[in-house]
Model the fold of this input.
Amino acid sequence: MKKHYTLFLLCLSFAAFAQNSNPFINQESLDARGNTMLLGPCSKVALMRFPYNRWYDKFYSEYTVDTISTRSFKSEMKDIEILIFGATWCGDTQQNLPRFLKILEKAEAPNAKLTMVMVDNAQERYKQSPTHEESNWNIFRVPTFIILQNGKEIGRIIERQVESFEKDLAKIIAQQPYQPAYKAQARVAHIVETNSVKQLVKELENIREEIKPLLRNASELNAYGYVLLGQKRYQQAIAVLELNTNVYPQEANTFDSLAEAYLIAGDKKKALYYYEKALQIDGNLESAREMAEKLSQ
Done:
């Protein structure tokens, strides 16, 4: 899904990185586990400070850049902008962001064309930044590395590499065919964004067979469903999570997530029904058991 990177966001973000005194950069808060996290626009310098340097330094120093592949796109970097959405509480960000930034350094990517935004993990703000830079960018997994040229998205790497970060970047920058690690969610998101709530369930059911071979596993749509819940788009979230139960009818966690969505939306009767469905598949699923017992009282 290609989108234009607005001049406003470019100016806001790049100006922020140039001025460490900007109060909207490198904000900190506590994550859902009580640990310190960065939120919103973020600089590389912040990642090199405690407590983030505990993982940043490790994965940065351990990574060996593929200089041959990097050399193939080095000369193009002056015309490339990189927009990164990550989360300091996320294990994939902790591993892959330092590696990716090391590659950009080797490629001599201009710092002025790099924007990083960190998102939250609280349920009601799930994968959102305080000033919502993620809006309109379809962020459901982090890290997400979005590659832009002349303000237009030409590709993205979602969470992890397909071949290697260097080879994936080379393909995107050369505008060769490239599919990120997660393929189905973009198709589902397009349906969600272009249909009314009334039409949504039917339209998603129509693409069920189409997306089955594209899905990595049940967590792909599950993660997207929780992003929609965080946005308080409850009916859309329920529709996506229901689709997930239809694609993965033998996985208890898909029904557990659908039950939670109904509970958050205020429908306790349907929540109990789907918690019980989850327990029929896996009687040892503790989260479903606890909630079913609570709702049955």
Remarks:
- The first strand starts at residue 27 and ends at 30.
- The beta strands are 27-30, 36-42, 80-86, 114-118, 144-149, 152-158.
